[in-house]
Amino acid sequence: MRRLLTRFDALLPASPRFLWLAVLVLLAVSGGTAIAGGEATAYPVPKGMEPSPDYQVIAGGKAVFVYKTPAFSMATFAVTGEVDVVVKVQRPISRPVIRPLARGIKPVVEGGNLRFHLPGPCQLAVEVDADLHRPLFLFANAPEQNLPRSGQVHYFEGGRIHEAGRIALKDNETVYLAGGAVVRGVIRAKNISGAKILGPGILDGSTRTTQSRLVELDGCRNIDISGPILLGSYGWTLVPRLSENIRVHDVKVLGWRDNDDGCDPDSSRQVTIEHCFFRTKDDCIAVKAHGKLETGGVIADSDSHALDTDGVRVADSIFWSSEWGHALTVGFAVSAPAIRNVVFTNCDIIKKEKGPALSIDNHDLGAVENVRFENIRVEDGCDKLLALKVAFSPYSADCPFPYFRNNPARKPAQGDDWQQVLRTKSPGPRGTIRNVLFQDIQIAGDRLPGSDIVGFSARNEVSEVVFKNLRFQGKVLKSPDAANLRIQNAANVRFEP
Questions:
Q1: What pLDDT shows up at residue 16?
Q2: Where in 258-352 does DSSP place strands (E)?
Q3: Which of 98, 121, 141 is the last residue of a domain?
Q4: Do residues 288 and 334 lie in contact, with contact meaning Cβ atoms separated by under 8 Å?
Q5: Of 86, 99, 267, 442, which is least surrounded by CB within 10 A?
Q6: pLDDT number for residue 446
Q7: Angstrom distance (rounded) from CA 247 to CA 196
Q8: DSSP state of 474
């Protein structure tokens, strides 16, 4: 015990040491890490990284560096077995919350510290007194194993900032970001197969001043992305486009900048996203099928099902969508013939600050079909639960160029001229949404958010939507009125036992 106290004392930051020693005694008495046998490993810290002014972290008896960003703080480390964590918070604490709530982790407040127990590798958000501008994200990773030792490897060692620029992946190559590596650059892969992006390090887009995608897979097959933190993208973060058999596992996407969608599978097939954490300013997940879109609203090859998106599965993941966008969405772009067979399952939406948590927005002429939202827990900050809409807007591929979203000199979508455009479009066909299941959706919070299911016209472009076991504060909602659901231009919307 004396050795443990001495080691902890040497690690402590400039703060009242008797508080930290008291915390350590409590850890020991309660079966803390040093006694229980769990172990934490802190990654090396690159020189020049600015620490968070809001938090300090001790995990399993090890000081863990806390990174500063404009929107949150972040700490990442490795754990084996069960460990205890102490977080020193540089402001008063009265109502701390650790999310996702389904984890059941309840912190103990001791002075300016939070103490809680980690059962093993996990991804958490620590929220202090409902302050959404200064949360702490904790990523306790499994130890690094099976390091790449053969083949072509772009290896970025820990404890350094790497100014990598553009990293071009080729067939069967690996990018490996070791724990404690900060790699400033983008990754590009085109028409390749068998490549991997691995390791718990950071791919950092936060210093980029022009919009670009952080990781772009164009026409790729059999790609594995596992472990890294994708930080601060200015533009979409991870984009599989015209790709197949893409696996995204244990990836942490953290953003706060414009148009920073987390992952946008686009005209792609068999994409799996699992055990991931997303915090974005815009959409967390946006499943799209652009087809081949030319500026000005002209679609080429729109009848080719090779441009469809088919077989996207998002599972066992955590989502925080802040000012813009949606947490889990299909759309807006459906200019290919179809998006089909999309599953969102066993996910926690811990924050949706504005807009719907779950949505399908079809602003084009294609079909969205066979989509399942199941076993999803919506926690807090949700002003709208769901929205299913078929619409015409500046996002639509057939929007006249003067109003088209990608026209930098576009006119605003309002006024008599815009109303005339809408009247011109209303007699013609739009896309469809059909065969959608919402099952085992749990809604927390102090009020029931509203929802919308709306087609574009009386043709009922939205159809066959089923709700099973939709719950608010534990109570089953058995009708549209009970669910605060508005239905317009839709057919066969049902609540089933």
A1: 39
A2: 269-274, 277-280, 285-289, 292-294, 298-300, 309-315, 318-321, 328-334, 338-352
A3: 141
A4: yes
A5: 442
A6: 86
A7: 10
A8: T
Q: How far is CA 428 from the centre of its chain?
A: 36
251 located within any domain: no
Residue 304 confidence (pLDDT):
67
**pLDDT (0 to 100) of residue 27:** 42
At 292 the pLDDT is 62
User: Cα-Cα-Cα-Cα dihedral of 23, 29, 31, 35, to 10°?
Assistant: 90
What pLDDT does residue 406 have?
Answer: 86
126 forms beta bridges with: 98, 136
Inter-residue contact 230 to 263 (CB < 8 Å) = no
SS3 state of residue 280: strand
Give the distance, in angstroms, between the CA of residue 64 and the centroid of all CA atoms in the same chain: 24
Domain presence at residue 163: no
Judgement on whether residues 135 and 266 belong to the same structural domain of the protein: no
Q: 292-294 and 113-118: which strand pairing?
A: unpaired
Q: What is the number of structural domains in the chain?
A: 2
Residue 123 sits in a domain whose CATH number is: 2.60.350.10
Q: From 72, 107, 104, 109, select the one nearest 94 (Cα to Cα).
A: 109
Chunk the chain into consecutive blocks of 10 residues (it has 497) and report each block's average pLDDT, rounded to whole numbers.
36 41 41 59 95 97 97 97 96 94 94 93 95 95 82 93 97 96 98 97 95 96 98 97 97 96 97 98 95 48 76 98 91 94 98 91 96 95 89 92 92 93 91 98 92 95 98 95 97 95
CA distances from 356 to 322, 417, 436 (A): 11, 29, 16
Residue 6 belongs to domain spanning: 2-141
Closest C-alpha among 66, 70, 63, 44 to residue 55: 66
Q: Three-state SS string across 79-117, please? A: EECCEEEEEEECCCCCCEEEECHHHCCCCEEECCEEEEE
| Predicted local distance difference test score (pLDDT) of residue 130 | 87
Report d(CA 412, CA 404) in Å as an integer.
Answer: 9
The last residue of one of the domains, among 124, 141, 158, is 141
Given this model, what pLDDT does residue 37 score? 65
- Global pTM reads 0.90
The pLDDT value recorded for residue 380 is: 76
Give CA angle at 381 (375, 384), nearest 5°.
Answer: 70
The letter for the amino acid at 457 is S
Residues constituting the chain: 497
Between CA 119 and CA 105 the distance in angstroms is: 9
**3-state class (DSSP) for residue 3:** helix
Nearest to 455 by CA among 366, 392, 400: 392
Query: Has residue 254 been placed in a domain?
Result: no
Look up residue 303 and give its two tokens: 């009848």
Q: Is the residue at 294 inside a domain? A: yes
